[in-house]
């Protein structure tokens, strides 16, 4: 009797191997090319289960984009501690285990990012860069969340939503508008130091490997005796530092708007592992009235001659993500994620960020975002949390009474840990007020930064500022000139002269509606029309 080849083919098609495609229910997929239809022309039937599962998951495969820092790249690596801070044992200042033993390596994940624009925006845009590190320590996760620039635009968290709204595209035109940017900055003079950095080449790092990182905010270190000091964190790239002028960035963007992500990925694939050394600055935990700035003001840099950089360890990135969404996109960071021996300071921006960062992760990834592997602590976790979307486990301890999801209890529930180091208990006294800090000189350090710049950096800064400010309302121009003159005579003079010259050649079609620093961007729509090639319809 002849073999039924059609049955044999059907049987073979259902053989499942290690590389067999399945549905999420585990069913082998035998036809991934066609939906089931009445005849080969259709119509389709409602019971196309494989298709419905596939397309409905596709419709939901993106989580909400980050409100800020949407565009990012990441990598795995480790932090190796020196066991010292400068020439002293690190235990003098902090009991955090991650820093204690020389040569100890702690696994980590890092995410670099831009701030203002969406997740597929060019990596050449003028914007701060995020620098967020998650260390999986033996005491749980420690997140050090900062930027590439050591300062920030504002010193009070109340202003953060307004700042981002002003820097983002106009809510009507959906186009970034430099007049909106400078309207906010001119009326928030504490931003002038950051404006000086962002409008210089430091506002466009050449890539992620060759930029500095900073915790930006002031933190505390606490030792075993409960004594605290104020600290600032600085990541220094061993690859050197490279920044781009606006024209150089434009040339790169014309051929590749993913250049920084590609640079990071390719470098690690080649085995050229990027490294950064971690430095801290240390200051006694008090108000320091002898300084002309408040040490908790994140618009200020701590002078290195008074508070030297002290090396404490190094970071090495040696593994690329296996899946971008699972690791880079779902990675969730928070400034409140600290381990024993690390603590908050009274920095008002830090305290505002500490609520906001973790809150946005609960909105974006979900209430159980800490059960996602990239965010999960690499140690035992035992909580009394319940429910929530996408919950994967119960966080119960071995031997725990599963009926007891509260504390305290004598019926087999979880118990508090014993604290070994003394609690840091700073004395806090004062009236509850809504006031700015007292020492708020907004331009002195901006002038110092301008004088520190090399001539090519000064020239690019002035060119970029003139290009954008010249298209702003005269009242905004006057305020920005006044800030520059207050910061440094040369700074103010060159900005004023540049704006006066720009008025003589101002194009009547000139507009502030352009990416920051791209003064001729408003000409692009007309150029596209004029340079476009005619085609016949088909």
For this entry, give a set of tags.
alpha+beta, two-stranded antiparallel sheet, 14 helices, 12 strands
Secondary-structure element sequence?
HHEEEEEEHHHEEEHHEEHEHHHHHH
Shape: globular
Relative helix content: 25-40%
Largest sheet: 10 strands, antiparallel
Counting helices, strands and paired strands, the structural category is alpha+beta
What is the β-strand count?
12
pLDDT < 50 stretches:
1-11
Oligomer: single chain
Straight-line N-to-C gap: 57 Å
Strand content: 5-15%
Radius of gyration, CA atoms, in whole angstroms: 28 Å
Total helices: the number is: 14
Mean pLDDT: 91
Q: In brief, what are we looking at here?
A:
The protein has helices at 5-13, 49-58, 160-167, 178-186, 192-198, 246-253, 259-269, 324-329, 348-364, 444-452, 455-469, 474-487, 489-504, 524-531, and strands spanning 72-81, 84-85, 88-89, 105-114, 129-137, 140-147, 213-214, 219-222, 228-237, 275-284, 310-319, 342-344.
How would you describe the overall organization of this protein?
Its cofactor is heme. InterPro entries: Catalase, Catalase_AS, Catalase_clade1/3, Catalase_core, Catalase_haem_BS, Catalase_immune_responsive, Catalase_sf. Its EC number is 1.11.1.6. This protein is of the alpha+beta class and 538 residues long. Helix content is 27%, strand content 15%. The protein is built from 14 helices and twelve strands. It has helices spanning 5-13, 49-58, 160-167, 178-186, 192-198, 246-253, 259-269, 324-329, 348-364, 444-452, 455-469, 474-487, 489-504, 524-531; strands spanning 72-81, 84-85, 88-89, 105-114, 129-137, 140-147, 213-214, 219-222, 228-237, 275-284, 310-319, 342-344. The strands form two sheets. Strands 1, 4, 5, 6, 7, 8, 9, 10, 11 and 12 form a ten-stranded antiparallel beta sheet that branches. A two-stranded antiparallel sheet has the order 2-3. A hairpin with a 2-residue loop joins strand 5 (129-137) and strand 6. It is globular, with a radius of gyration of 28 Å. The N and C termini lie far apart (57 Å). Residues 1-11 have low confidence and may be disordered.
